[in-house]
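A quick aside before the break. I want you to see a complete sequence-to-structure record at least once, exactly as it would be stored in a machine-readable document. Don't worry about memorizing anything.
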Amino acid sequence: MGIFIVFINGNKKGHTVKKGFTLMEILIAIAIIAILTAIGVVSYTSINKNARNTKRRSDIEQMRSALELYRADFGYYPNVNPGSIDTATNLSGVIDTYMPAIPTDPKGLPYLYVATDINNGQYYGYCVAASMEPSTTTDTTCGVTDLGGYNYGRRNP
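That is the input. The structure line, written in tokens, reads:
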């Protein structure tokens, strides 16, 4: 005959086994959750910034299209504030025929509009500018030397 050893709840001496997590397991789980949360927040912020910059580029292109249609009808570009940099909102009432409303920047800054290349009192060039958020490629060569912090500009083709 053999001797049988009976294990109760997996313990040799018959004591009950406590169920739960050790402090180390809890700390590791918290660290993993914190790392994943940090990655998610950084990605979310970056995606939002890129989305706002994409909207700015799209708004600038819509204004460019409206300005080109204006020029096709009148032969020159509008000038709402002669000889100075102006906000694009002042184009409202001038190019309303070509676009329903002047778009607004996602963060509330106005877009800039500058009429350039004057000849016989008419303007044959322009620059439309936006203030892009950092870490994007910029183009400030729109013929205007100082756009006051606006780092993305497009001019007539």
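Two observations worth writing down. The two ends are 101 Å apart (CA to CA). The chain is about 35% helix and 15% strand. We'll return to this after the break.
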